[in-house]
Amino acid sequence: MDIERINENTFKVYISYIDIEERGFSRDEIWFNKDKSEQLFWEMMDEVNDEDDFEDLEGPLWIQVHAMEKGLEVIVTKTHLTKDNSSSNSLFDMHERSKQNFKNGASSSIETHEYDDLAGFFEDFEEIPSEYVYEFANFDDILPLAKKMVNYSILSSLHHYNDKYYLYIRYINEANELVNILNISSIIAEYATKSPTTIHVIQEYGKEIISKNVFNELNNFF
């Protein structure tokens, strides 16, 4: 496990899936068993206390989790209460990519949340949608993304509407899909933005260019 102090109140921890398994946890347990995720989190915090002298972790914490290819990156900030006993968000700004990854539906927005522990964070994963619509200004912007997605098999279609291109992604709602959703969303976020336009509007008023297997089709022809 690697620990990096960002400032007096914030630190970043990276733990590989191999390390997680060596501690007696499976990947599915960390994502879907709140008791196990909480146990792992506080084990990690104990090590932070021992190795980085980050004391007094009691009280409200801002927690941000990134699912990486080979592990988890956790950023934790100890918050302070303002005079009205509300948490100040000046210490921690949620990364833009995380806003895109965990956006609850194509037309809604996400706010930075406060959690007392990692288990509370995972409760919100129940709200992760299974359908996403991404927007591209130009067709050529999709091509480098297709090269990166060659190893992923996902349900997808490509559409043209109002002079823009829209990528529709749908996941099967299964527990083992969560890490895959986070990884794929993170990659797509490098090339596209979430669209406020729903797939139903695009399908009704737009034109379908590729009906399925978008990335495979693009890689076959470009």
UniProtKB/TrEMBL annotation:
Any one GO biological process: sporulation resulting in formation of a cellular spore
Superkingdom classification of source: Bacteria
Keywords: Competence, Sporulation
Molecular function via GO: protein-macromolecule adaptor activity
Keyword Glycosyltransferase: no
Cited Pfam families: MecA
Subunit details: Homodimer.
Domain-level remarks: The N-terminal domain has binding sites for ComK and probably for unfolded/aggregated proteins; the C-terminal domain interacts with ClpC.
Role, per record: Enables the recognition and targeting of unfolded and aggregated proteins to the ClpC protease or to other proteins involved in proteolysis. Acts negatively in the development of competence by binding ComK and recruiting it to the ClpCP protease. When overexpressed, inhibits sporulation. Also involved in Spx degradation by ClpC.
The family this protein is said to belong to: Belongs to the MecA family.
Protein name: Adapter protein MecA
